[in-house]
Amino acid sequence: MSDVSAGAAATAKPSKRTYRGSQRPTWCAGCGDYSVLAALDKALISYGRPEEEITVVSGIGCSSRFPFFMNTYGFHSVHGRALAVATGLKLARPDITVIATGGDGDALAIGGNHFFHAMRRNVDLTYILMDNQIYGMTKGQAAPTSELGMKTKSTPYGTFEPPVDPIWAALTMGATFVAQTASHDPNHMTEMFLLGLQHRGMSFINCLSPCVTFNAGMDREYFKAHSRPLPENYDPTDYEAALKLVLQARRESFFPLGVIHVRHEPTLAERIGEIREIALKKSAHRTSVEEIIRQFL
Ligand SMILES: Cc1ncc(C[n+]2csc(CCOP(=O)(O)OP(=O)(O)O)c2C)c(N)n1
Ligand code: SF4
Ligand SMILES: [Mg+2]
Hints:
Elements: H1 33-47, E1 54-58, E2 73-76, H2 82-92, E3 97-103, H3 104-108, H4 112-121, E4 126-131, H5 166-173, E5 177-182, H6 186-198, E6 203-208, H7 220-225, E7 227-229, H8 239-252, E8 255-262, H9 268-283, H10 289-296
Parallel strand pairs: 1-2, 1-3, 3-4, 4-6, 5-6, 7-8
Antiparallel strand pairs: 5-8
The structure holds thiamine diphosphate, iron/sulfur cluster and magnesium ion (MG).
Thiamine diphosphate binds next to strand 3 and helix 3.
């Protein structure tokens, strides 16, 4: 579990009503984000932490509306800054479970800087990226994950930049749990979210979640047809195998679904704790600030 105390303080057994907020989602009918919300809800029921020990942090976008629809604490922050806020929160309150949610634009365009550094810092967070390969909220501009040549409102003649692969980015920047799932498979999503919540360290879960309004070509059927489960003998602890898999997926144009990589390393909070200990010991033998000032007088 992410925290040893997880679940221990639960007063009542979580139910369908525990984590669901009273506000009904305002997404378009058929939006993939509905299934993501339902799957997160189920994963949290299995995880079993009381709702007041969980915070959902987001940036801006359709997918970033998540905190409104949850009965946990929530922080609807600034576009591209979900991971910065979530990192600060986790450092200040390492005892709580912090979940970050958002879209491909939020994570990889305006938030790209924060994405890379949160991955390499191994912050103990669960980050759910709803990848619809478009800017949904602003009505259909190209996103960093949009396919090369895709025509959108901002690219009427087709995109000319190769897409960012979120799995490759997370793996190479150091995330210690990397998974991919899809909103057409709710049970798989629930399983991935639960494993992500239980992992201690940065859990990155890319979730193929169609925008039926502004990227109708990449709908549920498209993602279904282009997804493949991982081979039976796949070992997610083998980092090189994970890199090879992602390269193969890119060559053969498929989305691998499952836990692509997992390993265990100290988290950011643990590393900072160790440094604090060393610094405190050293400072015990140091000259005081007043003494230094006196020397200059
Ligand atoms: C600083 C800033 N720049 C730009 C915007 C406009 N904006 C709002 S949401 C968004 C992109 C949303 O796309 P994505 O993150 O993929 O989320 P989706 O709506 O697709 O779920 C943009 C550019 C903003 N709100 N704030
Ligand atoms: S615009 Fe797209 S991403 Fe936004 S709610 Fe509608 S279908 Fe979902
Ligand atoms: Mg998007």
